[in-house]
Design brief:
It is built from 13 helices and no strands. By secondary structure, it is mainly α. Helix 4 (about 75-95) crosses helix 7 (about 120-135). The two termini are about 20 Å apart.
């Protein structure tokens, strides 16, 4: 089955402490998997949900995310920034989902009020992101978290300021992440293994061939069943699908 490969194990960034850079050797982005599933479920065409159900799911997602961040040993300020970004996303997605009186009720008591006592996460998240981008040794795991949240559709203040400005910020964010955590080189090799495999297949008995075909059918099903994982990987990467 296709799986998300969101955790990265890299050495600490120069000038950063082990706790600030990669406290547990894992990143933050994979901790947003359940959030991405939830966002997908509220997308147009998703299963309708009641306000109470959405509120409880959002609370649980926020609690679980906070607990996971602290278990991985991130500094309090990193946890706070990441949690506020997730919280702003969940509120924004919920407000898109609901209309009329239910939307108004959510606006009066959003998740960010429960968690942080604020009503302006759409401003604060981007203020913190811009501040993080200016840091000489930015916390790359946190930047990847911001990238994932933006990839899931969070726009905050840029709903007013316009898509062009948001695109410019996203480009700067991706460029900084690429500089701090360059992609590993992918070696390319070529040989004649395909031809040898084909010759080997011809020597199999009909029963063995039938068994292999059954295995292939199962693998095809697993690949299809993993399509959601692929979509989530695109969401969490914060980059548009090609």
């Amino acid at each position: 089955m296709i799986s998300l490969t969101l955790s990265r194990r890299e050495p600490a960034l120069p000038g950063a402490t082990a706790k600030e850079a990669h406290p547990s050797g894992d990143g933050i982005r994979d901790l947003l998997r359940d959030t991405a599933l939830f966002v997908t479920s509220l997308a147009p065409g998703g299963e309708p949900k009641s306000v109470d159900e959405v509120q409880e799911q959002c609370r649980k997602l926020a609690r679980d995310f906070s607990d996971a961040l602290h278990r991985r040993g991130y500094a309090d300020e990193v946890c706070n920034d990441a949690e506020m970004a997730q919280c702003g996303l969940l509120d924004e997605i919920a407000l898109r989902c609901f209309k009329g009186a239910t939307r108004s009720a959510w606006e009066l008591q959003p998740l960010q009020v429960e968690r942080f006592g604020i009503h302006d996460a759409g401003e604060r998240v981007f203020e913190r992101l811009e501040q993080r981008l200016r840091e000489p040794t930015a916390q790359v795991d946190l930047l990847e978290c911001y990238s994932a949240v933006l990839g899931m559709g969070f726009v905050g203040r840029y709903a007013r300021e316009g898509e062009a400005k948001l695109d410019a910020l996203v480009s700067a964010l991706h460029a900084r992440i690429a500089k701090l955590r360059p992609a590993a080189a992918q070696p390319f090799t070529s040989d004649h293994t395909a031809r040898r495999a084909f010759d080997w297949l011809h020597r199999l008995s009909p029963w063995a061939t039938a068994g292999l075909l059954a295995i292939v059918a199962v693998l095809v099903w697993l690949v299809w069943h993993g399509a959601l994982d692929v979509q989530l990987a695109h969401l969490l990467s914060g980059k548009p699908q090609s």
